[in-house]
Amino acid sequence: MSNSEWKSVGNGHLEGSISIPDLDPSKLIVTLTARLKPIPQPESLVFGATMSDHMLIASFDPINGWSAPEIKPYGPITLDPASSCFQYATNTFEGMKAYIGPDGSARLFRPEKNMARLARSAERLALPPFNTDALLELIKRLVVVDQRWIPNLEGHSLYIRPTIIGTRSALGVSASDHALLYVILSPSGPYFRTGPKPIALLAAAENVRAWPGGTGSHKVAGNYAPGFLPQRNAAKQGYDQILWLLRDKAGWKVTEAGAMNVFIVLSREDGDIDLITPPLDGTILPGVTRDSVLAIAKAHTSGNLTLPGIPSTQSVHPYEQTFTIADMDQWFAEGRLQELFVVGTAVVVAHVGRVGFQDDMKKPARDLVLPSHEGRMGPVSRAVRQMIIDIQQGKVEWDGWSVRCE
Known about the structure:
Layout: E1 29-30, E2 54-61, E3 65-66, E4 70-73, H1 84-88, E5 91-93, E6 96-100, E7 106-109, H2 111-124, H3 132-145, E8 157-166, E9 179-188, E10 199-204, H4 228-236, E11 241-248, E12 251-257, E13 260-267, E14 273-277, H5 288-302, E15 316-320, H6 325-333, E16 337-344, E17 348-358, E18 366-369, H7 379-392, E19 402-404
Parallel strand pairs: 1-4, 10-11, 10-17, 14-15
Antiparallel strand pairs: 2-3, 2-4, 2-9, 5-8, 6-7, 6-8, 7-19, 8-9, 11-12, 12-13, 13-14, 13-16, 16-17, 17-18
């Protein structure tokens, strides 16, 4: 629904048809900070802990629509204590990254995918709509303003967090017809501090991340907080993340790992490789990196590109297919299970060394130890990671995925 179709009906909902202003980059106000912050050494960066000099902000109300966007010095925002975002978690966000290309320009990776997903998530929470092209242009302008914050070191980037929150200041249980949109930037190093070492996942059956008909396929704040306690419990047992499961007639099916998508690599009798990830059934976030891995594998198999370290004669067959913990056990026993890895904007690609399964919280987890590949990533996870990073940084031009900020 476009802004021209919205009007307030007095109960927090917007219906009908009335013309109100949308996001307009031509109205952008730029107020630069008087004092630039010192930039830390890339090696000292902790993911999401340091913010850049500036942020982008705009507000929405049902009478005036979207305000003139502003790039201003990074700092606190003021909200009414009764705001919908506090009371009913009317919050959605995205995760993107900026890189420095070989030509010295700032680049974004498939940003139109993030804008489309943010719009879908906002609609799912009944938040006001916005022009995705306009927001992307504004994000590019912000990245250019703070380009000095982009670390020019492999495995490092400038993380971009566009956020929309409901700001209707009333306690009635209804949609928010007021909103605040803001974008903040954070120079970041590797997501996992384990370096090249594999991570460990705990597949605990006690909790679920998402369920059919819920919001698992949208990037909304309410999906994340319920996972913090299971994550803490997993860490106490020596695991890095949760492998989220969902029980159905097939058994304990695998969905996501932490906030990341999951891939499994199986060998085939013909010498080719099967690359499997759970299907988008409404409980799984349609990750941009997930989509990219599937597309790259398909392109390798069709001969349109060659994954580094994978012979062009060896096909990598991508599948979206449900699989369970029992399937993983069977594939391991058959000697077919070669790799398990996770993907996401923050982590790019991380390989998994072991999975603990715990169907009874009173019993210790039993571990499935995956092939070690001499302590390094397996050939498939290593290949897709390197290809994605090369495209992100503009070293490889592919299908318009690396977008300059101009």
